[in-house]
Design goal:
Elements (H helix, E strand, L loop, with lengths): L2 H17 L14 E5 L4 E4 L15 H15 L7 E5 L5 H19 L5 E6 L7 H8 L5 E6 L11 H10 L8 E7 L7 H10 L3 H9 L7 E5 L4 H14 L6 H15 L4 H15 L7
Parallel strand pairs: 1-4, 3-6, 3-7, 4-5, 5-6
Antiparallel strand pairs: 1-2
Length: 291
């Protein structure tokens, strides 16, 4: 091989190196207590401030809160814990409870100076099929992670649920010991009821036709149901928010305006209560506390 041939090969190799994608940097989980996983480009985006509500302000979900907190504490302490599916009525605090439980347990760990920290990683519904890659980065870490997917559901032609199903329990590697998966959904079985009925009606074996998708929810050892609140529940939420944020309003006026607001919104959920508080604070010219 001549010198010119060697030079040509060196230039080709250098050009190929420039064209090759730069491998992603190893994630630095010390930067924050929460991250958002992005499949493209692959990486973890640090969240400087988590948008969350204090646990004490989440009303009418005491039983669910107690169960999720106990499960999260056990996980943070290195004990066996279940994946959790929080399902049910919209706006009743499902995602807020996940973030509040993470904060509560994380603070307790920091106070005791126990373990290496509890991290919250949000994965978007559309990135579920990249979950194995996400866990590949997390598996070697000394930290413990809650992987959180908000509003999880699957439609008729969606096959990404298979990635989640394998990770939760069925794959060769399975779920890493330092990971627990929490998801919220309006559907208990993560798929539309009419889809279940249609599949059963047209199948040779109706039971087997939907078993694969329905069984996904069985991979969650902890099911927590959330139901529509009563008027008293709604007013408790409103009063709790108003007291926490020190809004200067008489109780009778607060109740009157809150009920009127709920009628215009057609609901009495925690989300409706929080939206009312935003409107009220704006009308009063007061700021809301930043947690």
């Amino acid at each position: 091989m001549t010198t010119s041939d060697t030079d040509l090969l060196a230039r080709i190799a250098a050009a190929l190196e420039r064209l090759a994608p730069t491998p992603p940097a190893a994630p630095d989980f010390e930067r924050a207590e929460a991250f958002v996983w992005h499949a493209t480009p692959e990486g973890f985006q640090a969240v400087p401030e988590i948008n969350r509500v204090p646990l004490a302000l989440l009303k009418s979900i005491d039983r669910a809160a107690e169960q999720l907190l106990d499960n999260t504490r056990r996980f943070a302490d290195g004990l066996p814990a279940n994946n959790a599916l929080l399902w049910g009525a919209r706006g009743m605090g499902k995602s807020s409870l996940v973030k509040a439980a993470h904060a509560e347990v994380g603070r307790a760990l920091a106070k005791k100076k126990a373990g290496h920290g509890l991290k919250l990683v949000e994965i978007h519904r559309e990135d579920i099929d990249s979950l194995p890659r996400c866990l590949g980065h997390i598996r070697p870490s000394r930290h413990r992670f809650i992987i959180f997917c908000d509003d999880l559901s699957f439609d008729r032609d969606d096959t990404s649920y298979k990635s989640l199903k394998a990770v939760l329990e069925g794959g060769i590697e399975g779920r890493p010991a330092n990971v627990v998966f929490y998801a919220t959904s309006n559907r208990r079985h993560l798929m539309p009821r009419d889809m279940v009925d249609n599949e059963r009606g047209s199948a040779i074996n109706p039971g087997e036709a939907v078993e694969e998708k329905v069984s996904l929810s069985d991979r969650f050892g902890l099911w927590l149901g959330f139901h529509n609140g009563s008027q008293d529940d709604y007013l408790d939420m409103v009063r709790g928010y108003a007291a926490h944020h020190k809004l200067k309003v008489a109780d009778d006026a607060l109740v009157h305006d809150a009920l009127e607001w709920s009628i215009t919104r057609g609901g009495r959920s925690g989300r409706v209560a929080w939206q009312f508080i935003h409107d009220l604070a704006g009308r009063l010219g007061q700021q809301l506390k930043v947690e």
